[in-house]
Write a structure and sequence with these properties.
- Keywords: Sugar transport, Transport.
- This is Multiple sugar transport system substrate-binding protein.
- The protein has 20 helices and 13 strands.
- It is an alpha/beta fold and 434 residues long.
- It folds into two domains: 203 residues, D-Maltodextrin-Binding Protein, domain 2 (3-Layer(aba) Sandwich); 205 residues, 3-Layer(aba) Sandwich (D-Maltodextrin-Binding Protein, domain 2).
- Helix 10 packs across helix 11, helix 11 crosses helix 19 and helix 19 packs antiparallel against helix 20.
- The longest helix is centred in the C-terminal third of the chain and has 18 residues.
């Protein structure tokens, strides 16, 4: 994201109580001042995303059950980040439910004390079925042993490919992908074997699946892992794939630039989040809707290890004066019934049960549903380094990627980035004691 990524949140997918108010008590969630009046709305701040839009259409049902009005603001990614920064730094009480990226900002929000501890609520409510959430996403919901958010949308990488060109089965390994992509590349004809993100920082989340599948990781025992042989081979592979089979200008490509190249029939393969699949089925922007295929992430030397992340989650502001109502909203919006209904509409959920339910997968193309099921089962729950300053870390880690795409020697650049990242980890508060 990840889709995981900030840019996916803007595009989303290309379309994308009164059960008793008493669950377990949430300590440390209010700032005092007594209980708000019954006409005080529950305030939800969220990203403008297909999940949020779907929930907003159902708000009347929740308001009737809880007996309180809900005010739901849908913002762009930048607007949401700016609002959190201003309001939470001021301990403002006018945010109750927060839509957050568990992998991008939860660690920082936890460090600042902005998120309420949900551990007692999610684990103390048998009907909520916390154990039903995908293990990888459930793990990423906790910081320092405390559950601080609940995942509501998930994503994994998919191999998008041209069935009319590949023939038979799609590549099952990264070696096969490289070989086929090179064979299909026709630069003179402006056709490319592969397209993908190459922008220095923006490419890191998608590159993570290559890193894991080569046996590497961003950090190992709290120390930089990007200078290790496995990481260097992953850098060399991805950089070489785009250098030899990709379009010109790949180092400037984020999702917005790479996706249309495949959608317009100018590439044979594309790896990106499964959340964006509708772009290739939309006749207004795609010329490949009749020929696009969907496959799981190919296996590398360490097997297939794609990311499987919670791209968006819900938390409760520690300064909320309506923590019980805020929890009831989360309980309703992420409960089994809601997740089942939303996934049946094409919004990938975070519960295990829906990934084995044929009815909830019927809205996806069959081969995409199988790919998503595979990624949900074997995926790694993070697609970027687990640090406070995620943006700065991605910028450091992305430098060897750019070198590889430009055809430059990767190893010396990776060693320099490794040293810089190691120093960064010491200074980053997450690893200050490492």
């Amino acid at each position: 994201m990840s889709i995981n990524s900030p840019d996916l949140s803007r595009r989303a997918f290309g379309r994308l109580m009164a059960t008793a108010l008493g669950g377990a008590a949430l300590t440390g969630c209010t700032t005092g001042g007594g209980t708000p009046a019954p006409d005080t709305p529950l305030r939800v701040m969220a990203i403008n995303h297909v999940w949020s839009q779907a929930i907003r259409k159902r708000l009347a049902e929740f308001e009737e059950r809880i007996g309180r009005r809900v005010s739901m603001s849908l913002l762009t990614s930048d607007q949401l980040a700016n609002s959190y920064n201003v309001k939470l730094n001021a301990s403002a009480t006018d945010i109750d439910v927060m839509m957050v990226r568990a992998l991008q900002e939860q660690l920082l929000f936890a460090h600042n004390g902005w998120l309420a501890d949900l551990t007692g609520r999610v684990r103390g409510d048998a009907a909520y079925q916390w154990d039903d959430f995908l293990p990888a996403t459930r793990e990423r919901s906790a910081t320092d042993g405390k559950v601080l958010s609940v995942p509501v949308v998930t994503e994994r990488p998919a191999l998008y490919y041209r069935k009319d060109l590949v023939g038979g089965a799609p590549p099952a390994t990264l070696d096969d992908l490289m070989e086929t992509a090179l064979r299909l590349t026709d630069r003179a004809g402006n056709f490319f074997g592969f397209v993908g993100r190459g922008q220095r920082s923006g490419a890191v989340s998608m590159w993570s699946s290559f890193l894991y599948s080569f046996g590497g990781n961003f950090t190992i025992d709290g120390r930089s892992g990007i200078g290790r042989p496995e990481a260097i081979r992953a850098y060399e592979y991805y950089g070489g794939l785009l250098e030899r089979a990709g379009p010109p200008g790949a180092t400037n490509m984020s999702l917005e630039q790479a996706m249309p190249i495949f959608a317009q029939g100018k590439a044979a393969f594309y790896i990106d989040a499964d959340a964006i699949y509708t772009n290739f089925l939309d006749p207004k922007i795609s010329t490949v809707r009749e020929t696009v295929g969907f496959a799981p992430f190919p296996a590398g030397p360490a097997g297939a290890r794609p990311f499987n992340i919670p791209s968006w989650s819900l938390g409760i502001s520690r300064f909320s004066r309506l923590p019980d109502a805020a929890w009831e909203f989360i309980r309703w919006a992420s409960g089994p019934e809601m997740v089942r209904g939303l996934q049946a509409e094409g919004i990938p959920g975070a519960r295990q049960e829906v990934w084995s339910d044929r009815a909830t997968l019927a809205s996806f193309p069959p081969d995409l549903a199988r790919s998503m099921q595979t990624g949900a089962r074997i995926g790694v729950g993070i697609d970027r380094p687990d640090v406070l300053q995620v943006g700065r870390a991605r910028d450091i880690i992305g430098r060897p990627l750019v070198a590889g795409i430009l055809g430059q020697p990767v190893a010396p650049v990776a060693r320099e980035a490794d040293a810089e990242f190691a120093d960064f980890l010491v200074r980053d508060n997450r690893y200050r004691e490492a």
